[in-house]
Amino acid sequence: MLSSLIIKQFALIEHVELELDAGMTAFTGETGAGKSMLVDALGAVFGTRASADWVRHGAERAEVTAVWLTQSGDTQLAALLGEQEIDADDELILRRIINSDGRSRGFINGVPVASKVLQQLGRICLDLHGQHEHQALLQPDFQRSLLDIRLPQQLTGNVGSAYTAWQQARRALQQLRQQRGDTEQQVDWMHEELARLHELEIEEGLIDQLQADVQAGRHHAQIHAAASLSMALLDETEPNAREMLARAAHALAAVQDYHTGLKSSLDLLQQVDALLGEVVPELATVLDDAFDERALQAAEERLMRLQEAQRRHGCDEAGLLALMDAWQQRLSALDTAGWDEDAAGAALAGAAEQYRLHAAALSEARRQAGESLCRALRPLLDRLALAGMQVRFCLTADGRTDGDDAFTATGMDQVRMQVMSNPGEPWRDLSAVASGGELSRMVLALKGCGAMAGAPGLAVFDEVDTGIGGETAWCVGELLASMGRERQVLVISHLPQVAACADRQVVISKSEQEGRTLSSLQQLDDQARTLEIARMLGDARGLEHAESMLNRGQALAAA
Questions:
Q1: Cα separation of 525 and 153, whole Å?
Q2: Nearest one of 11, 65, 16 to 40, comparing CA atoms
Q3: pLDDT tens profile 178-237
Q4: Rounded CA separation 406/360 (Å)
Q5: Sheet containing 24-28: which strands, arranged edge to edge?
Q6: Rounded Cα gap, residues 321 and 499, in angstroms
Q7: According to CATH, where is 3.40.50.300 located in the chain?
Q8: Taking a C-beta distance cutoff of 8 angstroms, is the pair 332, 190 a contact?
Q9: Alpha carbon distance 518, 525 (integer Å)
């Protein structure tokens, strides 16, 4: 609930502090006194796009501060404040500063926030209904929501869940069909590439091994010559290295006991002879390895093909092995996709059938809700001078597409609110026939019968009574007062009947001070209300009539 509003340097308002309470408050005053400025100020503090025109001429900035009393259990508000890391106990202090250049700053409990956050707060707290706000009623989604809000949430929830399940089943089938949609050329290429890679018998480290084999083959002559010379020097010529080592060892063995250095030297010679003994068989193996030109050519070709494959796919041996495994799985999946596609098709058909069942149940519930809402509207429309207007909710299959493609998360219905302006005339969509005044009264009737349940706690009506009078005006006042028992209602009105039904009344007046025009707001006591209603009647001397109207209005409001 809005408990106070402070407006400074805003348009024609220099400084106004207004204390508000629950119930219905009527704002009245002469035409041009600035009643619409109150709506603009409320819009400003709840994030409406800032305008430099809001700043009073000659001032550097305008400022609007509102105190909003919070209620326990308001989860939407708590979630928004939590996202912004704003602490709040029992009240929120909202503040909007608009500079003369049109730039603005917003605050909640002293914490700077973007205007978008104030707008989100406004959607939770404020229902601003002016002469142009009825445009929402013309939107098909809004008309559908009028019915859905009267239904158990399980019905709409079932349709939403069934729609999600159907979408998932459809995506699964589409993915399988996309896999099967691979061209034969792509499949053949994967088969051919796999065969080429399999021929290489790839393993990690293969390229290093092939490079070593190629080097050995290309330098076979040099290798053989070096091995032959080494073998001769070590073991075959006279004298050779091993024979000379043996002679040296024999000489040292005879006198080793006479000197410790001789024994160590003998040990080293014996170690060298043992090592040379291992070298000789290795050299013999190298000499036995005959040159194989075919093997060299095969290694060179395999190395070249392996290097080409690495360049082609941009990876090493491990990457090629991973590619081969992935392609093999892809080809296997294509081989079994026919079976999988049949199963996925059956799953999609089952999901579609479940969706249709839930959508049909929702459609029937909407039909009944529409009939119930129209019955509830009838007496209110009669009292609002719309007795000749018949109303119905027309439900048709969504005509945008055919078959399963007509499925949506909100069902298969296209909901249209239709009216028959006069008996005997055809039914037409509300948007095609209703005037602005009729739409305003239609919105008021919908709110009066609770069709807009869950609406924000503050409702502001700007000139909702335009174009009406007499008993219809009394009905409007009574409906607004009735709404005020559940929500805080602020009404800007020029009708004494509506003002008389309010719990309290604030007059907006305009005056001239030191050559400047000022607008001010003043809450009226009972005596002042009587005078203001007499003024609204156009007869300031008809105080008895004004008092009678005020008594009647208060009686209607209390009924």
A1: 46
A2: 11
A3: 766 655 567 778 888 888 888 888 888 888 788 877 777 777 778 778 877 787 777 777
A4: 13
A5: 111-113, 104-108, 91-99, 61-69, 2-10, 13-19, 516-523, 504-513, 24-28, 488-492, 458-462, 126-129
A6: 85
A7: 2-130+421-558
A8: no
A9: 22
- What's the CA gap between 35 and 33, in Å, rounded? 6
Tokens of 244: 């000379």
**pTM for the full model?**
0.61
Phi first, then psi: give them for residue 415, nearest 5 degrees: -95, 125
CB proximity list for 253: less than 8 A, separation 6 or greater: 266
pLDDT tens digits, one per residue of 418-460: 998 777 888 988 877 666 667 777 878 887 777 766 667 888 8
Token pair belonging to 111: 């914490």
Q: How far is the C-alpha of 52 from the C-alpha of 97, rounded, in Å? A: 11
| Amino acid (one-letter) located at 201 | E
Distance CA 132, CA 429 (A): 18
2-130+421-558 CATH fold: Rossmann fold (3.40.50)
Place of tokens 């439900």: 395
Q: How far apart are CA 415 and CA 332, in angstroms?
A: 49
Bridge partners for 392 per DSSP: 418
Token pair for 423: 């008996």
